[in-house]
Amino acid sequence: VSEEESIDGAGIESTEVTRERVLERIREDSRFVLAAHEGPDGDALGSLVAMQGLLTALGKDSRMFIAPEDLPLPYEYRFFALDGLIQAPPADIPQRTVVFLDCGNIDRNSAIVLQEGKHLLNIDHHHDNTRFGTVDHVVPDASCTAEIVWDLMHGLGVRPTPVLARALYVGLITDTGRFMYENTGPRAHEMAADLIGAGVDVQDVYRRLYEEMPPAKLALLALALSQIQRFDSGELTLAALSAEDFQHASAQDSYSEGIIDHLRSIQGTKVAALVRELSDSERGSGRRKVSLRATDDDVDVSLIAREQGGGGHRRAAGFTTTLELEPLIAFLRGAIAAQLHPAPAPA
Ligand SMILES: [Mn+2]
């Protein structure tokens, strides 16, 4: 493609071009640091661990950065071997290529300490990615960032070990809701077939991620389900967990993962919201973390999250706020209504 054809109206290079640029950096550079978004989920961690395995297979020197506040990892991800883990930028960061994975922006991300890297490869699938890299390989059509890493792996001719394949598979099944969310296309299943062929033990991964649940996690779910609130004929279904709720359930912060799927599943819901008060350990006393899920395309929750300085996908987004619960709910109801029932334009 010519230079003009490869750049769209907004000056953004096509993913064919950015893919080649990423492959070139990986082939030519020898030292790397990898990072993902804060509070890393299955896709962030799976992509991180897989990229580490990929670079190691190519004989590169690679380190994985995870901020101290994100460790230990949520229990379901502790089986990942974190080879090459660092918790602070290495002294030679100006000579290293930094790879940001599944990271829509780095403004409020601890990984911002890696900005001094030689090259910044921004590999992500969030459509609202702020394109902060020196190369921005952003593929909104990818079901997960792990799918992009999987594609790069094939581009580099690396055959995955079972451990590398498992890391990619974790990213795939967590971000697609086990192949149930709207981002699940043929490619997600082709990727699954490829990875299972490379040695992924499907039942073992399922057990690790979704069973072996600490009883406190179920206790927290029970607390959330017992205080569901519905607004505007149920278009907004919300549960708010306080710091005391976490204490009563003896639950860790990460145990709220998955609760929002129950809220979204309730009849008539357009938007599900899980609000949780951040504990002191998350450096956020008095702040609340809000996760949003949309049931269909009628509401774009990433727009709502962005109004509060957050972001995400159209059907899954989030933000952090200092708003008290009442004004927060008022904001959400207003923002949802503005999309569902826009006022008619003045004549
Ligand atoms: Mn993701």
Observed structural traits:
single chain, 6-stranded mixed sheet, alpha/beta, 17% strand, globular, 347 residues, binds manganese (II) ion, 35% helix, disordered N terminus, 6-stranded parallel sheet
Seen as an oligomer or otherwise, the chain set is: single chain
Small molecules in complex: manganese (II) ion
Order of helices and strands: HEHEEEEEHHHHHEEHHEEHEEH
Mean pLDDT: 93
Distance between the termini: 46 Å
Structural class: alpha/beta
| Main β-sheet, spatial strand arrangement | 3-2-1-4-5-6
Uncertain runs are 1-6
Radius of gyration, in angstroms, nearest whole number: 20 Å
What's the helix count?
Answer: 11
Helix content: 25-40%
Strand count, sense and barrel status of the largest sheet are: 6 strands, parallel
Rough shape?
globular
Number of strands: 12
**How much strand content do the residues show?**
15-25%
Task: Give structural notes.
The chain has 347 residues and is α/β, with parallel strands linked by helices. It is built from eleven helices and twelve strands. It has helices at 15-28, 42-57, 145-155, 162-175, 186-197, 202-210, 215-225, 243-248, 259-264, 301-307, 325-340; strands at 31-36, 61-65, 85-86, 97-101, 119-124, 135-138, 229-231, 236-241, 271-277, 288-294, 311-312, 316-321. The strands form two sheets. It has a six-stranded parallel sheet. Strand 11 (311-312) and strand 12 (316-321) form a beta hairpin. The longest helix is centred in the first third of the chain and has 16 residues, at 42-57. It starts with 14 loop residues before the first helix and ends in a 7-residue tail after the last helix. Bound molecules: manganese (II) ion. Residues 43, 102, 125, 144-145, 175 line the site of manganese (II) ion (MN).
